[in-house]
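Box 3.1. Reading complex inputs
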Amino acid sequence: MEAKEVFVPITLESIEPVIFPDVALYIKTGENYVLYKNHGRDFSEHDHDRLSKNGVEFVFVSKDDMEVITSHMEASAERLLKSDILTSRAKGKMIYQTSINFVNDIFTNPDKTTDLDRTKRLIENLMLFISDNPDAITSLETVMSHNYHTFVHSLQVASLTLLMHAEAYSLSRDEMLDVGTGAILHDFGKIFVPQEILNKSGKLNEEEIKVLKRHPEEGYLFLQGKGVLSPVALTIVRLHHERCNGSGYPLGLENRDIPRSAQITGVADVYCTLTTDKSGTMTMPPHIAVQLMRNQMKDLFAPHLLDTLEKLVCTEDFQQFIL
Ligand SMILES: [Fe+2]
């Protein structure tokens, strides 16, 4: 059987005409992906205007082209963030647009537009909130320019953390913003970890692991010192590596001693690490990752949170298949 081509949505606003990589772009009509431009033809200002006037918010690229697009976005994000022309709000918007291009990968089925719309709304609100807070936006920019993969990963974790909270509990808008801010900055402490360790492809040695494991406490201390994050957000930064059986760090807390928001962020963090690679694209099917977390990582996570995760990321087709 021929493998089905998988498409990834890219926000139209994040495509800079002419300099965007020369890949085929598709638009979606009904259930079908229609070729808009093939390799070898520039995507012009005119194309951009035309699609925008027609209310097109996303164009689609083949998943096989994602690697080249990720490197392009990494380079342009760095360039734009370093420029003094952009206001904090504009930078927030740019980070948001880049972000939306990566959050879709947390779902089994990229065609599930309801999930994408829901995630987009949650992240949009979060980004609007963050872009009004100069210290928070600076913190996020710092993560983005230190290690792009950490930034993409943080976005995916924040999206899933927000979705899990929305699914399992009814939080007020303010509480959701606190949780989202904590989740998006959960790995802030990695800015203190050298690039060689963060980007190392092989196994880390003991000393490197020790350095890496300092990131929750270092991130917490730094952001606490800044005095801009709420206690809930700071708790997520500090405790997202705590595990129910006490094997986590930095404090080795158990079960209910680990605040709910930190537990959920921990589940989302591990799930996203298992399912996506450094370019932000999916490498392990969601149901395999959930099974692995239930069986091989037994006792690390609260079972009811794994149920919530499964409900969000595994399709009904799969549930029927295993029954
Ligand atoms: Fe972490």
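In summary: The CA atoms of residues 79 and 145 lie 10 Å apart.
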